Amino acid sequence: MPDDASNEPVRFGFSATLRVLCAADRHDEIETVTGLTPTHQHEHGDPGLLGRPWPKDLWVLESPLPRGAPLDKHLGGLWERVQPHQAFFRELAAEDGIDVDLFCGYRSDCAECGFEVQPEALEIVQALPIPLEVSVVFE
Predict the structure, then answer these.
(1) pTM
(2) CA distances from 58 to 79, 118, 119 (A)
């Protein structure tokens, strides 16, 4: 972390990711129906980090924006891609055993920094409706 006397700018980064968990048998259907290519996908038991098997299936669509873009822009960009297919994602989210959420990340080297999100940027979680999870990491 930079010290208070430092003239170094504060570094920060954001991300926004639509996640569909426990729906491996639907991965191909998601792509066929929506035309969206996942940023990442894996099935339960596939080798994961450090060779450990993944505990759940996962289909991921990340915001394509750089980490330096504000969270509002990440959410808006992701919503632009998902909005035409919102009925399909709502149906997925309503199915028993399938979890759909919006995972957002915030990283900063300043422990006293924060961020804001404009209400319209949250349209994606209201329209689908899905939970919003935020991971905050101070480096």
Answers:
(1) 0.86
(2) 19, 28, 28
Say how many domains are in the chain: 1
- Dist CA 35 CA 101 (whole Å): 19
The DSSP result for 82-104, as a single string, is HGGGHHHHHHHHHSTT-EEEEEE
pLDDT in tens, 53-64: 888 899 999 999
> Quick count: other Cβ atoms within 10 Å of Cβ 87?
11
Task: Name the residue among 95, 131, 106 with its Cα closest to residue 18.
Answer: 131
Q: Which two tokens stand for residue 132?
A: 């919003």
Is 132 contained in some domain?
A: yes
Q: Which two tokens stand for residue 31?
A: 């792509």
Sheet bearing 40-42, strands edge to edge: 40-42, 58-62, 12-21, 99-108, 132-138
Residue 1 lies in a domain: no
